[in-house]
Amino acid sequence: MRKTEIYRPHDTYFKETFTRREVAEDCLRNILPPEVLQLLDFDSLQLSKDSFVDIALQEFHSDLLYRMKLKDGSDAFIYILLEHKSHPELWIAFYVLQYMMKIWNQYLKENRSDKLPVIIPLVIYHGKERWNVGIHFKDLFDSRKELERYVPDFQYELNDFSQWSESEIKGTIYSRAVFLLLKYVFQDDIGDNFERICSMIHDLADKKSALEFLEVALKYICSATDKIGEENIQRGIQKALPEIGEHLMPTLAEKWIKQGRLEGWQEGRQEGRQEGRQEGRQEGRQEGRIDGLREGIILALKVKFGISRMDMVAQITNISSLTKLKEIEKKLLEANSIDEIQEYLKH
To answer: Residue 86 has what pLDDT?
Structure first.
């Protein structure tokens, strides 16, 4: 099965929120040191589409790169690495340096310069355990004083939201909601906290932004945790958008089924093209449609009926018949209870 957003929920949530320019700027203004902020020209802030995380580490790391100017006109980068293990990563400074080297290599290929641009590295962590790893690269070495001149060094800015109090998380309503969801997603009381976050979102003047956040947040929690129930989700939606709350979950369920099916078909078509043969194209399209529909059904099942009965996920995961999946899709959109789906799966 493809490693899509369902299986990398932290990556999807991180990128769907931090790629909003207003969110990125607000967060940076509230987490970077004042002496650094005074050097930055935020009017020049631009998001890069590149990712520098090694494929083998994509399960644990997500990254975003912002390019901007310093006020003196020189180039600079802000590199954000989201560490989404539930415990601190000893080698994070080593990985950050690897990613920074890739950024500098790319910069030198694209620009004629006799100077390297500064890269400000930010590490965002929201795991269960307190971060207890040194933030200097030299902390990875156990060297004598006489050898320190040979040890390279830099410092990354650490933001451990699992340990920050809510009062320490600054910014706009939208930005604070983004970080609070990261803070609480691993905790047992995520349900109650999700409802409080939704109450905050209700205070947004722009209801379109509230709806966009709610959709991203629902997709995230339904994929990233099994500690929130249907009641918490329903109450949260009602608190955020009482005017349309009762109609939202079935609508999103249908949307995500269609979206998963489309993305799966597109990925399958691309894989088929790479095969370069007619049978490869047909097989790739078919497999993509099956994967996409299967994943859309699983996500829709979670958001429509909650997460308390996700023993059915294994059953759906093992279905490889496109016809059977289409029947389940139709049943899911019509069903009023999870028992109807369970009964259908028995046949």
So the answer is: 76
